[in-house]
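Today's session is about reading a structure prediction critically. Students often jump straight to the picture, but the first step is always the sequence itself: look for stretches that repeat, for charged clusters, for runs of hydrophobic residues. Only then move on to the predicted structure, which in these notes is written as discrete structure tokens rather than atom positions. Here is the chain we will use throughout the hour.
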Amino acid sequence: FQKPIWLIVFASIFMLMGLAMLGVFSVAMPNGVQNKVFQLQNRFQDSKPSNLFIVGALSTLVVGPCVAPPLIAILAFIATTDNSILGALYLFALGLGMSLPLVIFATVVTTVPKTGAFSKLLTKIFALLMFGVGLWLLSRLLSGSLALMLWGVLMFALSWVLWRSEFVQPMAKRIVKGLSVASLLLGLIWAIGGAMGNGNPLKPFTKLTQLSFQSVSNVDELNQAIGNSKNLVMLDVYADWCVSCQELEHITFAEPSVADELNQMTLLRLDITDTDDAQRKLLAELNLIGPPALLFFKDGQEVGRQIGVIGADELLLKLQQVNHR
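Below is the predicted structure for this chain, in token form.
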């Protein structure tokens, strides 16, 4: 599910669910099925625990469409993680989030906010969150600068939603307006930073240092490149669809101190965006499953490796360690 086609499919699902939450279209059960459910509920109106359990179970079929967009979005996200335990925790958290408000409502019903400006604003914000997750998935396939500009556009949308909220209480209105202005400013910063060709959302005006990587795609090319180098060699196992790889490239490698150190090394890259047999053989030879991974070679021998994301300070320390081996 990490291939570009699947990322596009899942991103589209998130976008569609965002539109559903905005009311562009409805995700609901057919009216005939809902009527049958209501008829079954009417048969269990006693206050016996067993009847209450049945009514609650039937009610989920009716209120289910209300949470269908986030549920579908979560299922799509779980499919991209390839982690069943994490997926189970996400679904448990969703179920807990669905049930807790009902418990709170039953105990403190008079304090629950009535339907109005708050609920409308919350629905729109959740819709934007759906768009945000979709953009996050697509950002694996986009250039850093284009992704940063699109994040800026999303912040413009959030600013507009907040500004157009219908709060009448002076304090709430001031808070929401302030958040709207902050969102607008952040959107401008990201949009301008992206237009300047930068891709780091934490440092949108810092120009990315261009590192020169030599491409290798099989065992022979890797061994030849390592054998020809008199410097410390770093092999970057990379893929366009790998979010952690993008973080390494646009955040960790972009730090000037890190870039200066890396520019003194021989930099190799194994790009497995579209994996072939030779690349799979090389991964097996290196005892790797996939990206991200950084492998360090000195005098023809591996002297260290880093699996997963690493920060700038940690990478500098790692480079010092492997240099002294």
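Discussion point for the tutorial: Confidence is low (pLDDT under 50) at residues 61-66.
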